[in-house]
Amino acid sequence: MLKIPAAGNSCRDYILFISCNYVILTSVMDKILNILIDSQHKKLGLLDEIMAKCDELDRCLASEIPDIDRYNELMREKKSLIDKMTQLDDGFVALYERVSPGLRENAGLYAGKLKELKALVTDASSRTALIQARELRTRARIDKLAALSTTQTSFKPARADAARKYNNVMNKTTRPRSIFVDRKK
User: 123 near 44, Cβ under 8 Å?
Assistant: First the structure.
């Protein structure tokens, strides 16, 4: 820990103190920026894994008879990846909020790392948008499959209803009806 020069010391001591303090703050800020950059690299890796799970889900649903157990397993794996990514995002936001005032004040000093961080965040945002679009397409495919299975099962009762109606009509016409011929009062 740095000790503030005592009163009566020379100007050189104060300049040395300020420059040492500046170096420490710069070093700490560099480490924090490296942590933020590493966090974004990890997020991009998780997004790649999520995209791979989306590919597997598409293949699973593309078959004539979808494997529901495999689909559920993939969804669980994907949820755990999303949970990890959410945890990373929460940590990133908390850390960035703490250091953002210092970054704004000294943006020129950290321009290179801030540019890299911005590029990583932009890349993560675009990948997230791609994943969301794929999710919508997958959801539409699932809805279509669900509607297809519902219509296929709804034919069975319709056939049973038709058969029942046919039997009712046929039974009414084949049975002799009682007819009253005599109308006496």
Answer: yes
119's enclosing H/E stretch is helix 111-174
Q: Which residue is listed with tokens 């999520």?
A: 50
Confidence of residue 152 (pLDDT cuts 50, 70, 90): low
Cα separation, 42 vs 54, whole angstroms:
18
Q: Alpha-carbon distance 174 to 155, whole Å?
A: 28
Domain presence at residue 54: yes
What is the pLDDT averaged over residues 118-143? 91
| CATH code of the domain in which 21 resides | 1.20.58
Of 136, 122, 146, 159, the closest CA to residue 47 belongs to 122
DSSP 8-state secondary structure symbol assigned to residue 104:
H
Range of the structural domain that residue 96 is part of: 11-135
62-85 pLDDT tens trace:
877 778 888 889 999 999 999 999
Spatial contact of 66 and 145, defined as CB atoms under 8 Å apart = yes
